[in-house]
Known about the structure:
alpha+beta, D-Maltodextrin-Binding Protein, domain 2, 6-stranded mixed beta sheet, single chain
Amino acid sequence: MDTKIIIGAVIAVIAIIGIGAFALGGGNTQHAPDELVTCVAAHGEEPEFGFDPMHGWGYHDSGTEPLIQSTLLKRDVNNNFVNDLATNYTISSDYKEYTVNIRDDVKFTDGNKLTAKDVAFSYNKAKELGEGADLTSMKEAKAEGDNKVVFTLNKSDSTFINKLTDVGIVPEANYKEDSYGQHPIGSGPYKLVQWDKGQQFILEKNPDYYGKEPYFKKITNLFLDPDAAYAAVKKGTVDIAEVPVAYANETVKGYHMEYFDSIDVRGISLPTQNNTGKIISKDNLTYGNNVTGDPAVREALNMGINRTKLVQGTLNGFGNVSYNGVASQLPWAYQSTFTDGNVSQAKQILANAGWKDTNGDGIVDKNGKPASFSIYYNSKATERQAIAVAVAEQAKEIGIDIKPVGGSWDDIDPVKFQEGVVWGFGSADPYEIEHQYDSRVAGEGYDNPEILNDSAVDTLIDQAMTQDLNSSYSTWSQAAQKANSNYPFLWIGTMDYTYFVSDSLNISNSTHLIYPHGGDIWGNIYDWKRIDTNSTKNK
């Protein structure tokens, strides 16, 4: 079946459900020129613990704009670090101590001054909970006076500067873990004034914000799935809506489409070990797969699958092919040398390893075991479903039987180390390479789900951590190349983010920040403006 037809069928069902949900949630049909009504995925999914950075609010792989809270550093359009709360910072020569000086003129929305004690508290609490930024290399954060914070690490880590963009700062005196998310106190450009659970949240401009003043006084963000958001666009009830790429070629009067390429890559993990019944103790899960555990199967898939067709079909052409999982925008990117879509080569690789079609059913087998395994995907993500289905169709051409299985993460978690899974990755922090390939974190949470065990990769990761960040990029690249020589993933491609934007808005495309996994359209909210105030009359 054609992949675009698959996407269309899935979206049609979801859209019907989503439109009903939107009708139940209601919508404002008119708003002022300095107000926004949006539905965007980075902040569009309702946070389980509310608007609490300690529980991951505002964090999407190297820091997105939390809106309500401030961070020590931000990134600019060129992915360089710029000060937010910080005024300057120093790093020890062994990369085990980071000292940050902070502004003296910042207040929380409750009127209290933000000090170094609040910064230290926020980082220590975020490390304790472990639900957002990866602070495993941090031993402790300690305030020295009101304006200096010292981060002491338990190992050399030149990537830790990335974590200074990742944690929204909360007030130590008024932070309560069980209620802060419902009534957040922050120092960012906006403050939360209303949260209608299951429907929307409303932000208003923070009059005491120390930074560049945003144009918009009020933001209402609706909790709609992307397909219901498209229905809202057609009704004219939102200013901005993120939509699936299947809708990216559609036109709606009064709106234009904004396209943003990203470092958000999709890939399928291929367990590199055989299943011997061993258990990964932390999660009490067995690991390994007796089909993908054969390196010939993993190599054949990487050589035989046509990624260009996949991107054109599953992503509707709004993305870029990736052979190695490292987006081209990143400084540790590298070019893979092999050519995919070579079915005859893939078949030969399998044959050389002893995989033969002994019963004429088109599927090769070895020692009586057919080359068959499952690929799981999050059923809420239509592009992941389309990828799993399309890969399964192509795999049949080379004699491999793949069964796509959709479900929630609760369904996927028990088998994530035993079967293939369609994953999303993408971070401006090279430490992601450690999460993907380091054998010492294999099977911890979602780290190294393919259970790669390559000591040479681990050594390169350790080496990169002790180097100056800019100098380390080539070493991180080597680590990724060495890891991918084992074919632990079938990488597919990076995906674009697509938004319907009201013609009345200018969201300054030229100043948008790099898009990590999860996206971040709010990163340059300070540059947005209404250019046609009359157009809000019909919204």
